[in-house]
Fold:
Amino acid sequence: MSAAGDRPLIATASQTSGPFWHLIDVPAWADLLRGDGPNAGMEGERIILLGRITDGDGVPCSDMMVELWQADPGGKYDGAFHGFGRCATDANGEYRFTTLKPGPVRAAGNAFQAPHATLTLFARGLLSQLVTRLYFAGEALNEQDPVLNTVPAARRGTLIARPEGPGTWRLDIRLQGEGETVFLEV
Amino acid sequence: MSYAPIAPGSQPPLDAPAYGSTHRRHPKQAPIRIAPTLTELAAPRMTEALYPSSANLAKGPGWEAQGERIIVAGRVLDEAGRPLRGAMVEVWQANAAGRYNHERDQHDAPLDPNFKGEGRVFTDAEGWYRYTTIRPGAYPWRNHHNAWRPVHIHYSLFGQGFAQRLITQMYFPGDPLLPLDPIFNCVPDEAARNRLIARFDLDITQPDYALGYRFDIVLRGRQATPMENPA
Ligand SMILES: [Fe+3]
Structure:
């Protein structure tokens, strides 16, 4: 089928979430392991993912919605683990999720993607979402990851979280300018 | 499996000079297009069991919001026209006076103690969603001199694939502020822009109760093309 034949309709235009999206914020969703949540009691390596989001002037973005999407510790998306979280950045522009470390996810052929989480950003001043990935420093699979290898080597580091204390990984995000984070288009 | 590329002009640019907040927030580098992996083909399953619905923003036990009660309904479809079942739709909005129940909203308009301004519904097997609310008010913002946002309701949608995630805004027909609004007008294609405007619908309207508005939403569709190796 042609592209036009596949597509009698065109996707609705995105619009900014604006500064007041917190009306739909549920702070508990930032903790994927919350006691009354879908993943309570699930086994795996408990980690914290955090980082600061700054704009083109280096100013912290304190009004952002950040969403997390990731596989389970076995690298699966079969629904047993609810790999979704949402959080608001704080006054310092920091996001913070508590979750289980994702495992390697199957790629084309017999290959595996390196463990990763997807971060999606919405905010005032973003007319559509920005999508990026968080990888973990020191993972052998990073060398052969199909998405990391699509990114020019000089910018790959913007996707790699560094350890910051036990079980805590930091990935700062720069929206614009020097050290600008790599954003992905799907 | 892959997602159909974005139709030209149908989505706003990240750098929109008329909308001041984009100046320091839009990436200067083009996004890197990737072939979807399992991560992008899957999506979180948002169920009513995990995320309880609340379809009436206007009234609850012992409270009723001020303003003009309205019903909003519509279908969520993909680009092939297939209805999306179980899509989670979150909405949020200002009150009838144009004020958000939000500590950072400094607009000098009255707060309504009976209006929180957020709701959550799920689509049925035919892709229909529906909620009751009050018509929000227009409100000023600081983008430029005498800037006012047209009346709108914010929408957040989760479909069946990661690329179907969408945040957008629904506008109202005949709003004189629409031609002046940089956020609405950042969508280059006129037809795509106008699809953000709900239409009055007498079938959704309930006698002696509330006017009805129809707002359909289309989420990105999948294309059956072989997964390419991006390397
Ligand atoms: Fe708004």
